[in-house]
């Protein structure tokens, strides 16, 4: 029997009141990866290989990880979507996130009326293991990376982190924004991502528990791993006290200004993330973590036919929401079937010799302020791109030299 389509506002209020244990029953995909299964850079690069207890710490190397795999599996406060300015879903990681979150995500995004390049907007995560999705629109850098594109990409990371802090969220995962269909070269994009996050955390260390760079392609894994090894050494003196293990209660979130939506004002979200779950994320018990007020703007209206086509397709696929409970397994099967090799990442071949732990690293980032401004017209030509959704995170065995030879 088909179920009534869920109202996104009701669903959002219901979900944000659940604690992590109750939420876990709602995840569309049960292959989720809890935060404590993703080692920090420091844990991953422990100097004492004899496995003895790590001492010292408290530096940024406890704050960041590098993870290769599907961002939709990560159980964190927020995952970041590399969206298009209409926020109406499309392909790539955008498609994966919408597919995994369900149609309520699309409905809430539609109420936001788009997002400007470089800015960020936040929605509920719905069926995802992540409580929230922060949508940011990267620059289109096809064949040209000028200062504008570099600044816009840096703004995506800064504004996302600021939105995290404003909503008292403490664990976040980023994909490699703009390096897919938007054509930003992987190397400079990684530089911008790492330096921006590094500087922000250095000035806001108490506001963040973990930043995960969730790479998808072998190329990016090696780029990030090499850059982080150069950029971030764990030079925290041994005497530094251990960072809180996620057991400190974040201050009650301040209530935010009324949320506006295309259909008039929505009620103001109540503040107050109470305790944390045991893996360091903000958890709300009876209180919603406030949503930063978002000033929607007229929809760009310039979406390419194809783009909406993609979303329609994914909505049709995820139209299985009504039978989600019965079909949860089917959904996973669909995911697997739907996986087209976007790039036969070498790691896929290396899949059968999985052994490498994820690499994580120490990162710090500079201070900044952010705001959610009016949306800019989406001047991006949509492009067909097969989307690949790996079903497990993959750590390659391949050496950097091999990967560099390939590039
Ligand atoms: N026809 C379309 O509208 C269309 C087609 C393809 C992509 N897109 C998307 O592309 C635009 C954004 O471009 P972009 O380069 O910023 O994003 P992107 O094209 O999604 O690529 C960003 C990065 O995310 C990686 N990625 C893909 N799937 C996952 C996953 N499940 N988990 C983690 N990482 C993943 C991908 O390999 C790349 O490194 C948006 O319009 C968005 O909708 C749209």
Automatic annotation (TrEMBL):
Q: Where is this region: Disordered?
A: 237-407
Which processes are annotated in GO (biological process)?
DNA damage response; peptidyl-glutamate ADP-deribosylation; purine nucleoside metabolic process
Tell me where in this chain the Macro domain is found.
51-232
This entry's Gene Ontology molecular function terms read:
ADP-ribosylglutamate hydrolase activity
GO cellular component labels: nucleoplasm
What's the catalysed reaction?
Answer: alpha-NAD(+) + H2O = ADP-D-ribose + nicotinamide + H(+)
State where composition is biased (Acidic residues).
295-311
Q: What is this protein called?
A: ADP-ribose glycohydrolase MACROD2 isoform X2
Please tell me the species this chain comes from.
Answer: Betta splendens
**Gene that this sequence comes from:** macrod2
